[in-house]
Structure formats: C-alpha cells, structure tokens
Design a protein that fits this description.
Chain lengths: 357, 357, 357, 357
Amino acid sequence: MNANTRLSGIFTPNLVPLTAEGAINEPELRRYVDWLIERGVHGLYPNGSTGEFTRFSVEERRRIVEIIADQTAGRVPILAGAAEANVRETLKACEYYASLGVRAVAIVAPFYYKLSPASVYAYFEEIGRNTPIDVTLYNIPMFASPIDVPTVQRLSECCERIVAIKDSSGDLPHMIRMITAVRPNRPDFSFLTGWDAALMPLLLIGCDGGTNASSGVVPELTRKLYDLTLGGQLDAARQIQYDLVTLFDTMLYQAEFPDGFRAAANLRGFTMGTGRQPLSSEQQADMSTLSDTLQCLLANHGFADQPVRGCSPATIPRTADALRSMGALRESGSSQSDDVGRIVQGVVAELRRRGMM
Amino acid sequence: MNANTRLSGIFTPNLVPLTAEGAINEPELRRYVDWLIERGVHGLYPNGSTGEFTRFSVEERRRIVEIIADQTAGRVPILAGAAEANVRETLKACEYYASLGVRAVAIVAPFYYKLSPASVYAYFEEIGRNTPIDVTLYNIPMFASPIDVPTVQRLSECCERIVAIKDSSGDLPHMIRMITAVRPNRPDFSFLTGWDAALMPLLLIGCDGGTNASSGVVPELTRKLYDLTLGGQLDAARQIQYDLVTLFDTMLYQAEFPDGFRAAANLRGFTMGTGRQPLSSEQQADMSTLSDTLQCLLANHGFADQPVRGCSPATIPRTADALRSMGALRESGSSQSDDVGRIVQGVVAELRRRGMM
Amino acid sequence: MNANTRLSGIFTPNLVPLTAEGAINEPELRRYVDWLIERGVHGLYPNGSTGEFTRFSVEERRRIVEIIADQTAGRVPILAGAAEANVRETLKACEYYASLGVRAVAIVAPFYYKLSPASVYAYFEEIGRNTPIDVTLYNIPMFASPIDVPTVQRLSECCERIVAIKDSSGDLPHMIRMITAVRPNRPDFSFLTGWDAALMPLLLIGCDGGTNASSGVVPELTRKLYDLTLGGQLDAARQIQYDLVTLFDTMLYQAEFPDGFRAAANLRGFTMGTGRQPLSSEQQADMSTLSDTLQCLLANHGFADQPVRGCSPATIPRTADALRSMGALRESGSSQSDDVGRIVQGVVAELRRRGMM
Amino acid sequence: MNANTRLSGIFTPNLVPLTAEGAINEPELRRYVDWLIERGVHGLYPNGSTGEFTRFSVEERRRIVEIIADQTAGRVPILAGAAEANVRETLKACEYYASLGVRAVAIVAPFYYKLSPASVYAYFEEIGRNTPIDVTLYNIPMFASPIDVPTVQRLSECCERIVAIKDSSGDLPHMIRMITAVRPNRPDFSFLTGWDAALMPLLLIGCDGGTNASSGVVPELTRKLYDLTLGGQLDAARQIQYDLVTLFDTMLYQAEFPDGFRAAANLRGFTMGTGRQPLSSEQQADMSTLSDTLQCLLANHGFADQPVRGCSPATIPRTADALRSMGALRESGSSQSDDVGRIVQGVVAELRRRGMM
C-alpha cells in the first residue's frame, strides 16, 4: 500500500457511438478506443456521465465494457462505471467487470433521491466491504448525492478496496481538504479530477490525474497539459489550460451534456450518431451552429480543417466571447435558455420538500 | 374532452413492502392495497418516488404494477409510474401497463442529467405522440429536471394523450400559473399536487386532487381533508391541514425519504421490511426514536395506541417543536445533519459545471 | 393581549416618488398617500423593500416617515421600516418613529452578511428588549438573513413588544408552521404576508393580512380580494387572485424590482421619477415595452385607458404568456437575461466561502 | 498603461478594533496598522467585508480611512472601500478618499437587491466615468450582486479608471475566464483574489495578488506563501497552502464572519473588542472554544503560545477534523447549525419571488 500504486494520469470517460437505429455502434467504438490509446490517454473510463450510462439498459452497459476491454487488450487500464439500481445489483456488476480484467470500477453516489452523508457512507461501506475489485468513489454533486470530506475520510479508513475518488466538483479547496484528510493514512489513495477547466492547478496542488471528457475529443492536448504541468513548464501549461477552458466551456454550455462533446468527436472523424435524448428542431439547428464554432476552435489547434465559410474572430471565441455567444444562442431561442432556472428549481423544490423554507 | 373526465381525488403513491431478503412482499402488498381502498383513497399510484421506483429492476417495476392491478380488480383507477432509461423503453412500459388496464401512466421528467425546457419538451412530445395510454406529467424538481409552465402549456397543446400533471413542487403561484395557462384550452386537463403540506389551499385555488404520500399512512385523514375542503367546511379543514403538516414534516424530514413513511406504515400494522438503501447503525437508532414520535402523533388521531412509555408533550410535537426536535436529532449525530448541505452542494457543482460562477 | 389587537388588513409598502434631480418628491408623495387611503388600503408601510430604503440616506429615511405620518394624520395606521446599520442605530430610529406616532416599526433581519438563526435571534432579542414601540419582524430571505420558525417562536416568547411577522417568502407550509408554533401562546401575534401571488390562500390558512406591493398600484383590487376572501366568496376571489398573479408577475419579473411597480404607478397617474439605480439604454427601452404591457393589463380592469396602438392578445398576457414574453424580452437582450444566474452565483460563492463544497 | 503599473501583492482587508463602548479604538487601530506593515503586507484595505463596513455609519467609514491613511503615511498603498447607499453618495466617498491620497478605491456591487448584469454594468459605468480615482471592482457574490465575466470585460473597455477586480468567489475557471477576456486589451488591469483557500493556485494561473483576511492574522504566512509561489518553490508553497486552508476554514466556518478572524487577531496581541453584531450566550461560549482551537493552530506556526491546558490532536485539527469539529460544534447547539439552511432559504425565496419555480 504505497504511493506508487496510485491510479494516475488522464482516463478518458468515453462517449458511446450509436447507429442510426440508436444501438451501440460496436465497430466505431472499437475504432475510437484505438484512436484514443494511440493519442496517449493513460486509461479508459466507460459508463461515466459522459458515456450516458443512465440511458442504457443493464445489458447494454455490460456490453460496452466488454467491447472496450476486448479492444483495449491490456494496453491501458480500464475504470468501469458500475453503478446499478441498488447495492446488490451494483455488486453483481463489480463481479462481472472484475471477470473482464478491468483495473477498477467507479461508482457514483446514489442519485435521484438526495441522500445524507450517513446514507452515502452506508451505501459505499456495504459495497467497499463486499467488492471483489478496487473501487473509485465518484463524486459529481451536480447529478448525484455529494460525497463530503468526512465521508471520504471514513471510507478510506474502513475499506482497503476503496482506492480513489474521482471528484467532478471542480472545487480546489475541497480537493485540498480531501487530500490532507486522507493521504496521511492512505498514501496509496488516488485523487482524480473530472473538472477539465481546472486541471492544471488541481495537478499542481496534489491531484494524481483526471477523468476528463475533453480527453475524448482532444487527447493530444490534455496529455500535453498533463506532461507540461508535471514537468514544471508552467508558462506553457498555463496557456494550454486557458485554451482548454474555452474549448471545454463551449462543449459543455452550448448544448445539453454530453452533446457538445459528441459533436466535437464527430469533427475528429467519428460517427457518433444521434444521442438517446430527443432534440427539438430548434436544438438541432443550434447543434449545427455549435459544430461550426467547435470546428474553428479545433482548427486553431490543427485538429480539424476550418469550415468552408471560414472562421471570423466571432467564430473563434475568446473565453468571454464564448460566454457571450452562449448568451447569444440563448437569445435566439436555444435550449440553453433556462439551464440555470431548472437547476435552481431543483434545489428550491428539494428545499421546500425538506422544510427549509 | 371536458372537465368531467378529469383525473381527480387522492391517489396513493404506494410504498412497496419487502421481505427479509429484500424481495417484493406480494401478500403484504395485496393486503396493503385492500386496506387503502377500504379507507377511501380514490386511486393507487405504484412506481412513484414513494414507491422507490429507481431502486427496483425493470422486471420488478412491472411486477409491482401487475400485483396492484390484479388486487385492485377495477375498484379504483391506477396511475402507473412508467419512466425507464430512455424514450424507447418508456414507451414499451406504457404499452405493457396499458395492457394491464391501468387508467393512465405517470412519467417523471428525465433525471440525473438536468435538462433544459426544450429537451424536457422534446422528451415528452415524443412520448405523447406515441403512447397508447393517457399520460400524466410528473414534475418533481427536487429530484428530476423541472417541467416549467410554458412546457406544460405546449405539451397540453401538442398531445391529447397528455391529460394531467402531478406537481410536487408545492409552489402555489406556480400551480395558478399552470392552471391559467392550460385550462382555457384543455378543460379536461387535470392538476394534481404531490405536496401534502399545502393540500387544502391547493384544492381551494383549483387543483383536482393529489398524489400524497401521507395517504399511504393516514388515508382516512387525507380523505377527510379532501371532503371537508370541497364541502366548504374550511375551519375544520384548516385544523386537519395544520395537523397534517406536523405529521408530514415528521415523516419527511426526520429520515431519508421514504423511510419515515415506511416506519409510519409499520405502525398502521404492515410489515414494510427493510428499505433497499442501507442505513448506518446510528441511522437505525434514529429510526427507532422517530417511530416513537410517529406513534404518538398517530395515537393522537386514534390511528395507533400510545407507546408503552407514554407520550409527553415533548413526544407529541407541535409543528415548530417537530422542527426543533429535528434539530435535536441532528445534534445527536443523526443522518439528517447535512441534508441541506448536500442539496446545495448539488447545485453548486451543477452551476460550476455550467459556468455560472 | 388578545386576537382583537392584531395588526390586520393590507398595508401598502409605498413607493417613493422622486424629482428630476433624484430628491424625494414631497408633494407627489403626499398626493399618493391620499390616493391610497381613499382607495381602501388599511395601512401604510414606508421604508420597505418596495420603498427602496437601502438607497436613501439615514436622514432621507426619517424624512419619508415624517411626510407620511403628517399626511396620513391618523386616518390609517403606519408601519415604519426602521432598520439601520446596527442595533444602536436601529433603536434610535425606533425611538424617533415612536415619537411620530406610528403604530409599529418593521425591522428586516440583518443583511449583506448572512447570519445564523442564533445571531438573528440575538439581534432581534436586543431590539425587542429595548424598543419603545411595537416591532414587526420582517422575513425576506431573498434579500436578508432568514428568520426561521424556531427563531420566530423564541422571539414571540421573549419579547412582548414583538407583535407580528411580515413574511415575504410566499411559502405556505412555512406560514402554517409559524402560526401553529406561535399562536397558542401569543394570540395577539399577527402574521402578514408580503407575497401577493398567494394572498388569497394565505388568508384562508390563517394570515391576518399582507404588506403587498401590488396594493400600491391597484389598491382597489387587493382590497376587493381581501374582502371577498374573508367574506367566503371563494369563486370570485379565486379569479381575482389569478389576475393578480399575472399582474404581479409582470411587474416583478420584467424589470429590476421595484421598477415594474414604479412604471405601473406612473400609469395610475403619478410621477414616480427615475429610480436611484441607473439603467442602461437597453433597460430603458425594455421599460417602455413593459409599460405598454402593464397599461393593457390595467386597462383590462378599468384602471387605465388602452394604449393608443391597442392591446392585442399578445399584449394582454395570460399568466403563461407573461412568463413566455418574459422569455421573449430576455431573448431580445434585456436586462433580465441573467437574473437567475446571478442569484445562484450568490449561493455558490456563499457556499464555497462556507466550505460546503 | 502597462503591466508594470498593476496593483499586486497581498492587501490586508483590515479588521476594526472597537472599544468597550463599541466605538472605533483608534490607538489600537494605529498599532495594528504598524504591525501589519512591519510583517510584510503589501497594502491595506479598509472598509471591506472583513472590516464590517455595513455596520458603521457614513462618518465612521470615513474616519477609519482617515486613521489608516494617516498612520500608514505612504509606507504601503491603500485600497479604500467606498460603497455607499447610491451612486451619488459613492462618488462623494471616492472624492474624499482621493483627497486623502489613497492608491485606489474598491467598490462592491450593489447589494440587498440582487441586480442583473445590465444593472451592475450601468452602476459601475456611471461610477467609472465620474470617479476622480482608480476603481477596483469588488465581486463577492455570496453577499452582493455578482459581476459576471462579460460585465467585467465591458467595464474594462469603457472606463480607464477601472483598473482591477477583487474576486472573492474562489472559482478558478472563473478567474481564468476573466483574465483571458480582459488582459489582451488591458495589460494594466489587475486581478486580485479574496479567497485565501486557493491563493497559491490562483497566483499560478495568473492572478496579481490578493486581498486576504488571513493576512490580517498571519501576515508572515501569507507573505511567505506569496513569495514562495512567485519564486517557483512549489513544494514548500503547497504545504503552506494546505495549512492555510485549515486555519482559514477554522476562522471562517466556526463563527459568524468575521468573528473568527477577530478572535485570532486577539491571540496575536490585539484588543479587538466586541463586534457590533450581538451574540447569544451560547455563541459566546462557542467563541471561547474556538479561541482555544485557533491558539493551537497559531502555536503550531510559532505565532502564539499553546493554551495552558495544552493542544491534543483533537485540538489541532487536520483539515477534515476541522470540518468534523465544525459538525461537532453544530451538534452541541452552536450558531453554525443552520448556516447552509439560511443561505439556501435566501435563494429559494429569491427564486420564488422571481417566478422561477
């Protein structure tokens, strides 16, 4: 149990290409896996949020991991998302993925119901005590019950099989708090960030790596950022981090997640197909505009040709322009118009339900 | 298409009794169904949030509706929760439940991912245009993507098969906005509230009924509240509404949802079994304290005997006392201690993810 | 100390007319006071949020109450907003307003810093023990530290001089919780709502009245709603409540608060002048559009002539249309575009500051 | 207009010592100023949130700046908080502080009312076009209307006198977005962070300095962190940043802000006096416990002697322990118990008010 065994590097939370009929596009998925590995990602991470695990059936989720494990053939480690409807089903998935030879599983905290830290602890403790394979906690509080610092600490103390946390909160002091709470007793415990917009500073304050959706689109860039940061070339790293924020913001905020990432992967030469969540005709038009913007951003880094009508400064946004054009999209009636509203409505209702008002 | 066909009355979002091994306890479920119908509920609503639909497998959800439809045998209408992993799977569930003769299905907005109004519309429109059975929209913004007023209006206009909305936000002006937006064009459209703490005033401003978890515990009381309110006996109704707030708050805020309701149903004579979400030993102790409190509250209405050690004023809380004792529970280390924290962490992370900060 | 002495009825949180130079327009304020009293408001409430108390100097706040007290001349009771920079200054204001003969003061919970319930209690307890005049607690959690149910109960028990709460949360179960917590021991304690969109149902579940910004624009309508509700004419009251939601939403959400109310008061024949918060040129254009919408809504009730270019159905919104046109305004680049965003940014930052992430 | 003129380094947002009667303790304030300058702070920042500007009168705020300007006597630059009730009063304060020779003023966005970006822009534009002195925007979204990225960019373009932003959101990608939006056109524009828990990484991604409350307590430590980070000694800097998170969290979350900082300044040898916000007797007891914890933390760095009863591991918290003991404090009835609750209630109410539910 030492620092050398820690999970580290950039794991790609991979997208799932679909056929015209909406089924898993196995050949394209295999081609995508090869492409990612060839471009330097340190590992793969099927059945994450980027992989839309909730929109597949139990059988499909298993099939996705089977394909990826088979195609990877040991070249890089695999972190397999294993969350199912309840503890019993989740443990069955752990067993199955262990049989496929993946390095570890990642398990998101319970979602839909928002659980207390005590319940989150009880849930992961039962898994941690019974899993046949290493477990990565997956903290993504915008979608699932949060895993707070004391809970991570307690879980790191109860269960040797719990070996890492992937944190998508993007909160830097929170990461510092987890590291100082856990590392003294568990030098083998790994801290991964899912928040691409702060990857460089998170690595600098002690993270071991990341599971970053951007690496499914620009694996060369995230790898370079990782290498430069660890190599102490901070001026060069900082500029890449700036560019990554612009690209990440554009993919994340100008379409429903993960459609912006799917659109960008199309531009890298893959046929991602239509996502499983239906889009209105307005949304489809928005996606086309977004695709042009993304093509210009990718062309900027040599990852795509410019679109035929060229890239004006307005098409290649600086970060603030990206935010502004996001506003502009909104103003033309796009689906983003109420994204904050609905987030907040969620809290509001939850709070009323819990009598906090 | 007129007001007479509207879904109305109190539908019970029924709990699911489990065996010691965690399987569906079919005989107890059948006994529970009879008991509810005999005590005056107007309908049943399996696979709602109270019924923990996300914690069952696809097959179990179908089995639950089969049992309830069989046992009900047409005595009351059934509203069957039909949300599955994606539109295709949801439509298959609609077809199956239609074949069982249920009155309508209820479909919660997409969850985990928080979708924009445009996506929520696209999702329900595709369902509304293809469903073989009447659909009730289910708006529960604390758990799922909100369905906002313009979206409800548009859906009521696109799709005749969409005939109702169950709204669990508890927000009164929001209900008024929906009613004034939809009713002029769709007099047959029904508005149901899932927020027991405001049932009386919501009925008074125009709701047709409710799907209220409390009716699974005190069906006599919710029925009486409904009848008194519609009969214009407001002074009597108001007092029952006050009492219901105290009972509801206690069941809702002093345990993870729906464990407080399960504990209270036990006190009414059912063997609900252990829920599917594991509890820590501290949480189990809290449940025992909560059970005493609930027993006193139920005894107050003649629905249970007092516990052997009696009910001090401290055990029978006024509403504010209930809130205070909730605080007290918290202070003794219970699982509630961070309920708000985790809610808010969710928003926070979502917002950061969406670049709103 | 009995129920008969309770503050009750509709108190108008009055706007302050300004001159072209931005000073208090005393003659117009006096004319406005007369107009309100003649149209049936039960009381006046200077230095509330509607009255923009934070944008005036200490001396101006005193002058506003002096003018209103003088002009009212005892015809209706006055509730004077008395919050100043700290307890000592607030108590000085209480003394001064007592000397002017107002019925009571209203004191908002501390703002800017968000205080815990313990601090909110300590603040009001010190005021409650030293005030020479009756105090109304003012709970407006969107702007100031919330006053929660146990805090209201404790304050009602410590301090006889604390005689009422004005609650602008609009949360109905919250009001029920306060009433059941306080009324048994303090039958003289009054509950007023500041949330016009739920006035009727709040009166029906036990409120004594309201301090409603709408009553500064359509005092005839709020008075009628109050009288019909108390008189048990619920069908007629319900329709007025529906209309009031549409009007209130339009005034509240289509401009910075309270500019929508100021625009509507202009349409009732007053010269409100320019508010103290600067507007961009875009915002000024939005205000002109809003004014047309408001004129049509007021004309609908006979409170204004139609604008010269008439009122199309698009100009006279149903409630949902109002919400939609709000969206439309947003889409044309108005100042509303980020209202939710900034609210949420506030929480986010607060939470990060408090380490909740 | 070039990068060399940028505001940079650590500005101390200084606390205000009070006498037993609650007045400004001028001799102690002068002694505190000398002590801070001798320990290496790069500048002083009176009338910030740490300085409780809202709890002083207009006259007192001016007196505080007079004292500090006089005592500093040009040794370090002064950034004077200048926000008053409205634009006109704020501009008067700018003129007065300019006459005292301060380097710049800092102006918080409008608070109480939560304004849209358009209104925030209009407010600062009017100030920026009329101020006789350089202006630092102050973004503290937990307390005041947020200043979003496009607004900062527009203000940087409209107004040369606006030369910096102090951002207390602590959000790292947000800082990156601001820098990439503003720096190309305004190389002289400075970015300061008010979020001590992320000072090192914020400096590493491009910030010019900070206004950090911790520097009023441990000026030696924040200066050392600043120097090590800029000097590229990242391993040493990282450890100090970890320690600073623990200290900062303890001061920030275990008492009402800024009372934890006041308690720690007492331990450094100053008589801060009683704050202007009253505390309950329970809160006073909590402060005594907190003081012991802080003394141990300070002793750890040689900034204080250990308390007479010593420092057990329980008294010297690791970060997660600090969080846990925060929970413990909560459980013993402290004032922190509802800090999140009240934050969220704020949003909730705001949202309801804005019709977002």
